[in-house]
Amino acid sequence: MKDKLNLNYPYNTFYPGLLRWSRDGEIDLDTEKGVARVIALLKVICNSPAFDFYDGDFNGQSFEAVRNSVNIDLDAEEYHSEGPHRYRIERITSFVQARKYRKYAPEWCILESEVAYDGHSDYGKNRIDFYVRDDMEKIPAFPGKDFPHDDYGLSLIAVITGPDSEIVSVTPRWNCEDEKLLDFLKNIKDTIRITTDKQKIESDYFTNVAQTRGLINLNMDDFHRLSDNHNLAMEVVVDSAGTLSDQIETALAAIRKQGIANITAVILSISYKPSFPLIASELKDSSTLFDRNLAVKILRGIQMSNNIINNRSVSLFVFVGK
């Protein structure tokens, strides 16, 4: 068995438990599939907090109990996707909001309880962002050859940033802290960011809209006129290589997915890099997307920005009826 499994460190830590499972018929080491299942399980355990939790005999637990504890689907096949993929960045501001991801990353400590969440967020002092890949929901929990940077691991990433913008932790869907992912995150070129915290939305508007200049300028008075008569619901930022129309459609789809209804007002802010000026046809094509619903009050702003990833970016500040 030792030769079949190639039990080098740290896998050989669990030799006593594997021997017990094999003796009791819980694992099959006589077939290639059986050995592959064991290797996959050990790969996940040895790269997660489970490595420190279990002793060499897996604390006397059964194979099924251990498998369930680390959320691995050993009956699945390795997932392959060529991409490219779009990431939605969701700013997490409460445990209730974070908890929605429990079924997708059940091993994340931050999702276990409100006490754990408060500890990671330092009671609101730290910023928490979840990077959600567009195919996240359909990827099985089976380690790929690039584990933990396989498709499953990269499909959902939690980034916690401290008050001084220092990185506190980066955690892929496989529950192991990994700051090496910072370079990967910096290279993401196609993103959607969703924010529902009103204070953060107003701060974003002030920094990225009211304080910038361009073809159509908006200020804080514009924002407050709407917020005085409507309820601020959310902000959606799309920064991608697509056209303005594509980005607006993507933002609208994100709003629908959040279940936002009774939209009464929208601020549409378009950002462009100074080195790639807008052309009239872009604005004409994108304007018709909102003119379909004339009951919604729309304010439009167009400004230059060197802080966007791509040549164009769209921000939607969404208001609903009071």
Termini separation: 68 Å
What proportion of the residues form beta strands (DSSP E)?
15-25%
Shape: elongated
Structural class: alpha+beta
Radius of gyration: 24 Å
Q: Write down how many β-strands occur, each being a DSSP E stretch of 2 or more residues.
A: 10
Helix content: 25-40%
What is the N-to-C succession of helices and strands?
HHHHHEHHEHEEHEHEHEHEHEE
Outline the low-pLDDT stretches.
none
What's the mean pLDDT score? 88
Give a short overview.
By secondary structure, this protein is an alpha+beta fold. It has helices at 2-5, 15-23, 32-45, 50-53, 63-69, 95-99, 114-121, 151-154, 181-186, 198-210, 220-229, 244-257, 280-291; strands spanning 87-92, 127-133, 156-161, 167-171, 191-195, 214-216, 231-240, 263-272, 297-304, 312-320.
Structural description of this entry:
With 322 residues, this protein is α+β, with helices and mostly antiparallel strands. The protein is 34% helix and 21% strand. It contains 13 helices and 10 strands. A 10-stranded mixed beta sheet has the order 4-3-2-1-5-7-10-8-9-6, with helices on both faces. A hairpin with a 5-residue loop joins β3 and β4.
